[in-house]
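INFO worker-7 received task bundle
INFO bundle size: 2
INFO processing item 0
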Amino acid sequence: MAGTKNNPVTARRGPSLNLILTAVVVVVAAAVIGGVLLANRSSGTGGTAQDERLVPPGAHTLSSVEGGKVTLVEFLDYQCPACAAYYANITKKLEQDYQGRITIVTRNYPLQMHPLAQPAAKAAEAAARQGKYKEMYHALYDGYQSWAVDGRDTSDDTAAATAKFEEYAKGIGLDLEKFRADVSSAEVKGVIDRDTADGQALGVDSTPTFFLNGKRFEPTGGTYPDVDRELRAAIDAALAG
C-alpha cells in the first residue's frame, strides 16, 4: 500500500480546535481538583467544615462505631425542659438500643434563659477530663428534678446545684478536688464556647437540635412516641442504605 502524502496546508496548521478545547477542560478540571484537595488539607482531617463543626476532635460520644455509617449529633442544654423530656422519652432508650451500631455525639449548647445550664455543662466537661463524661451526662439528666427546677419554675440556685453536681461527682468516683478545679478552668469553658460557636454556625437556635449524618433532623410528630418513631425510622434507613 502506498504511503499517504502529507497535505502541506494541514501540516502547517496549528493544533485543532478540538485539541485546544480538550486541553482547556483538562486544565480547569485540574484546578478544581487541586482546590478541593487544598481545602481538605487545610481542614486537618480531610473532612468538610460542617463535618468538623458537627464532630470536632475530642467530641463526646455515648456510642461509638469506628467508620460507622450513621452519626447522630445532639446539641443540648442540661437545664432545658425539652432536652430532659427527650432524654426521658427518646434518647436514653435510643442510646441503649443502638449501642455499638451508630455513633451518638453530644454537644453543649447552654441557653442564656437557663441560669444553671452553663454550670451543668461545666460539670459534664469536668467529669470528661477524668474519663467519666457519660456517667455525668446520665447523672445530670436522671437527677434533673433535683437541681434544675424549683417547684414548677426553672431554678437559679447555683449553690444548691453545685452541691448536687459534686454529689454526682463523688458518686461516679471522681477526684473531687480535681473536679472542682476543672469546673473553673479555662479549658472547660473553652470546650463549651467552641460547642456553642459550632452550633451557631450550623444554625442551631433551640435545644435539643439533632443532626443525622450531617442533615438536620426536623420531626413532624406531635408527641414523643411520634418523634421517637420518626427518628428511629431515619436511623434505620441510614443503616440500611
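INFO item 0 finished
INFO processing item 1
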Amino acid sequence: MNFLIIGDVYSKSGRDALQKHLKNIVNENQVDFIVVNGENISHGKGINKNHYDFLKNLGVDVITSGNHIFKIKETIEFIKETKDLLRPLNMYDSLPGNGSVVVEKNGLKIRITNLMGTTFMDHVNNPYEIMDKLIEKNNSDVHIVDFHAEASAEKMALAWNYDGKITALVGTHTHVQTADEQIFPKGTAYITDIGMTGPINSIIGANPDEVIFKEKTKLPTKFIPSENIGQVRGVLIKVQNNKVYEIKRINII
C-alpha cells in the first residue's frame, strides 16, 4: 500500500499547485492513501471550512495540522464535526478535535496521529507521555505520525524512541524539505521535514520583502503570502505486509 504525505500547504499558491499536480502524483505512484498538512492553507495561517472541503474534494483521506490550527475562529466549531481534520494530540484536552484517527481502507486499519513539538513552540503537553498511552491501546496495521516541530533533534529523538512501534514519523512545520529520508533499524520510516507545498521564490511561503524588513528592524510586520508559482513537496511511503520498504521524497514544480 502506498501512502502520500504532503507538507504544509501554504495559501493560494499551495492550493493551486496541489490541485494541478495531485492527480498525476497519485496515478504515477499508485497512491492508496493521502495525508495533507493543512494548517497554513487559508491565507498562510489556519484552515477554514471551504479549504477543508477543497482538500476532501481532491481525495485527501486525513488532514493534519499544527500550531496554527485554531488561527481561524470558525475552525473551533467545524473541527468538532470532522474526524479526519486533526489537531495535535498533545494540545490541551479541553480543545476540540481529534489528535489521532483510524481509517479503514484496502482491508487495513490505518492510524494517523498528529503531534506537536515543545522546543521553540507554543506550550503543549509532553508528546512521549501521550504517545505511550496511545501505543498501549493501538491495534492498527499502519501508524503514521505527523510531528509538527521546530527542532530537528526533537523530531529525530521521538522517531528513534518509537522505532519499530510506528510505521513512519514525518516532520512538518519548518517548510524546508530535508534530505535525510531513511528507514530506521527496527523498520520505522523517517524524514526530519517533508517541506512546504507553496510558492517558490518566497521565504517559507511569505513575500521576502516583509520578512527582510522585520529581520532588519525587529518591528511588528504582517507577512503577506507570496503569489509566485507553487511547488508540491512531501514523501511517498510504500508499505507491504505492514512493513515499510521505501520512503521517497516528492518535489514537483
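INFO item 1 finished
INFO post-check item 1: The first strand starts at residue 2 and ends at 6.
INFO post-check item 1: The longest helix spans residues 11-28.
INFO worker-7 idle
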